[in-house]
Design a protein that fits this description.
The structure holds two protein chains of two kinds. By secondary structure, chain A is an all-alpha fold. Chain A has one domain. Chain A contains seven helices and no strands. The radius of gyration of chain A is 16 Å and the shape is globular. The N and C termini of chain A lie far apart (about 55 Å). Chain B is an all-alpha fold. Chain B has one domain (about 30-190). In chain B, about 80% of the residues lie in helices and about 0% in strands. Chain B contains six helices and no strands. Chain B has helices at about 5-15, 20-60, 65-95, 100-120, 120-140, 150-190. In chain B, helix 2 packs antiparallel against helix 3 (about 65-95) and helix 3 (about 65-95) packs antiparallel against helix 4 (about 100-120). Chain B starts with a helix and ends in a 7-residue tail after the last helix. The chains are: A mainly alpha, B mainly alpha. Chains A and B meet through helix 1, helix 2, helix 3, helix 4 and helix 7 of A and helix 1, helix 2 and helix 6 of B.
Chain lengths: ~160, ~200
């Protein structure tokens, strides 16, 4: 048990920031991102014994996080909250404006993307190799490249559109 | 005009701070479950305290009428049975840790939810009826020492207290607990539903 604890702590320390970033990019809300981070690592803890090193541990955790994010907002109760995401982000924009307007704008633009696209672009922004993103999202690498190209364009367009307002 | 590379740079420069440590994270998950356990344990302690208070009354006071002994016996038995039921439910949620045996824990939590529902409904009415019967027997001798006003006050206040507990209080407790357990079940189901996904 102690060994599992130690291993878990190591895994948490080396992956939590990226996973939090992913969750934050997906929800645009710190509290929701924290909830998602907690759920993700709870699943990691429960399944640690089952992890067989078939893939990188970080890939495995990303996959859990992506599933957690998708399920979290899709569940009935979160739908109502999801509708509020825009409002939350709008508020955050005001909150951030003095500190970092550009970052807030970026989160707002990410929130305008489709759910799956949001997660994919977050991984792209974090520079995850394409084969890993393909593995996590269950899309073939060929299709993924096309999809990523499209999402990048859409995000850039959105960003420039909002920045010019 | 910004290009995607600049947007990426912006993203990477934005430092996020994870405010929770691995320990705190696991503790936090256990805390919600512990809250439920604590409430259940306090419930049992309260019942034990009532049991002891009534037992002390029986031991240290001298009652002459057989009705008082019957009354106290009924009350004590009812409290003991109710406490045992509460203890059985407490064991259900305390013998497993969600972070270790998630499926078993979730099943137990669902049984707990069902048991609590019975406890606040059918079982509760048995409890109230038996308790009232015990009190009626108890009052036969005790009220004889009281003046008329005291009698009215004793019967009236006891009746109002039982009425309050079985209506407003029972419904409020039931509603709060139902929501709390349902939220925990919903959360754990969501987590368990994805356990087979990784790997």
């Amino acid at each position: 048990m102690e060994q599992k604890d130690r291993l878990f702590k190591q895994i948490f320390d080396s992956n939590s920031k990226k996973i939090f970033h992913l969750c934050y990019g997906y929800t645009g809300d710190t509290d929701a991102a924290n909830d998602l981070l907690q759920e993700t690592f709870l699943k990691v803890w429960q399944n640690l014994d089952k992890f067989r090193n078939k893939s990188l541990i970080s890939t495995w955790i990303y996959r859990i996080a992506v599933n957690t994010c998708l399920t979290y907002l899709r569940s009935e109760k979160r739908q109502a909250k999801d509708e509020l995401t825009d409002n939350i982000i709008e508020n955050k924009v005001e909150e951030f404006s003095e500190k970092n307007e550009q970052v807030a704008l970026l989160y707002k633009c990410i929130s305008k993307l489709e759910e799956n696209d949001r997660l994919i672009i977050t991984m792209v922004l974090d520079e995850l190799p394409y084969h890993e993103i393909a593995d996590i999202s269950g899309i073939s690498e060929g299709n993924l490249r096309v999809k990523i190209h499209r999402i990048k364009q859409k995000l850039t367009e959105l960003y420039n559109q909002y920045a010019s307002v | 005009m910004q290009a995607f590379d600049q947007i990426q740079e912006l993203w990477q420069k934005h430092e996020v701070e994870v405010k929770v440590s691995a320990d705190e994270m696991l503790q936090q998950a256990k805390k919600e479950v512990n809250g439920l356990k604590l409430k259940s344990a306090l419930n049992i302690l309260g019942m034990l305290a009532s049991f002891m208070a009534i037992a002390a009354l029986w031991i240290f006071f001298h009652f002459e009428s057989w009705t008082t002994h019957v009354g106290i016996s009924i009350i004590i038995i009812v409290i003991a049975v109710y406490t045992l039921i509460l203890y059985r439910d407490y064991r259900l949620i305390s013998k497993n840790d969600f972070t270790v045996h998630p499926h078993e824990y979730l099943n137990n939590l669902k049984t707990y939810q069902l048991n609590r529902y019975k406890l606040y409904n059918s079982l509760y009415w048995f409890y109230v009826i038996a308790l009232s019967l015990g009190l009626i027997f108890y009052f036969v001798e005790i009220l004889a020492y009281f003046t008329s006003i005291q009698k009215v006050l004793a019967i009236g206040l006891t009746f109002l207290w039982i009425l309050f507990c079985s209506t407003i209080l029972r419904k409020a407790v039931m509603k709060r607990e139902k929501e709390r357990i349902a939220l925990l079940i919903e959360k754990f189901e969501r987590i368990i539903g994805q356990i087979s996904t990784p790997e």
